[in-house]
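Protein entry
_____________
===
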Amino acid sequence: MQQVLHFQAERIEQVLACHKVPSRVTGGTVTPRLVRFHVATPFGVRVKQVAGLAEEIAHGLGARSCRVYRDEGRVQVEVPRRDAQVVHLMPLCQRLASQGPGTVPPITAVLGLDQEGAPLLLRLPSPNVAHVLIAGTTGSGKTALARTIVASLALHNSQRNLQLAIVDPKGRGLSCFEGLPHLVAPVVTRADEALPLLQRLVAEMERRDAEARCDPRLVLVLDELADLVQVGGREVEQLLTRLTQRGREAGLHLVACTQKPAAVVIGSLVKSNFPVRLVGSVASPEDAKVASGLARTGAERLLGQGDFLLVAKGQVMRLQAAYVDEGEVRQLVERCQAGAAPLLLAATGTDGRGNNGAGLATRLRSRLQRVK
C-alpha cells in the first residue's frame, strides 16, 4: 500500500509539473473508498489551474476519475482506491455503542465515514439540520443511504422517543421496514396513497403546535420525492411545504430522496427548506449545482454506490455511506418486535472476503513521507 501511495504522490507532482504547475504532495488520508492527497502549490497558483487538470491527473494515475478542490487552505486531490472496501452499518454502530452511552446522541443518524475516515453522524434536531434531501442518479446509492439512516435511527432510539413514517413508491429498498414498532403507519408503497398519510402528519404537527410539545420526534422518509409530487399534484406539494416549513418546531423531520432536485420539478420545496443535502453521483456539473445548491462541488466526479457529498451551510464534506442490506433490516425488525436490544444483533455483513468491516470504523490516516 505504501509503495502505491508514494507512486501516486509522485505521479501527481509530475503531471502538474508537465503543465507548469509546480507542486508538492505533503500528506494524505486513506479511507475505505479513496485516498485524499494534500497538495501544496506556490503562492499565485490558482486552484482552478489544478482543478482544470483533474482529467490529466486521473489519466496519469490510471484512475477512472479524480476530484480536486480547496479545503483548509490546501489543494486536495481525491483518487479512488483500487481495493475499495464496503463500510457496513452494523459493525460501525456496534463500535460506536462500545464507546459508551451518549456516543450517538438521540435522533441522530449514522451516515458512514467522513473524508478523514471517521464516523459521521447527523443529528436531525440540530437547528442547522431539520430536513435532509438525498439527491443523485440511479446507482448513486440514495435509497440505500435512506435505508441506512432509518436503520441507524431505529438502532439507537426506542419507539417512545422516535416515530417513523415511510413512503416507498417503488416498493423496494424501504419496504423491508414493514413491521418496525417505530412506524406510525404501514409503509406506503403507492404514490396515490401518500396523501392521507401526509394529511395525518400535518394534523399531528398542528396538534403539537397547539399543545406546545414536540416529543416523540417523528421522521418522515420519502423515496422518489419528485415522482410523488408529480403524481400527487399541488395538494401533496402544499402539504410537504407545510411540513418542511413548520415541522422542526413540532419535532417533525423530513428525509427525502430524488433523482430530479430541480426547482421546476419540485417547486419551491428544495430551494430553502432542506438545509442539509446529501448529493451522490450526478451526470454533469450543471446537475451537481442544482442538487447541491453550490457551484464546483465536483459531484459529477463521484463514484456512485454510496460515494456522497454532505452539503450544509455552504460547506462540503465527502463521505462513504454505510451499507445495510434488506436481510439485516428484517433481522432488526424482528428483534425490535421481540423487544430485544437492536444493537445486540449480530453483524452479518461482509465484504465477500470474510471481513465484517469492524476495522473500517477507525480513523485511517496515512501521512505520506517523501522517499528520494
Remarks:
- The CA atoms of residues 58 and 65 lie 5 Å apart.
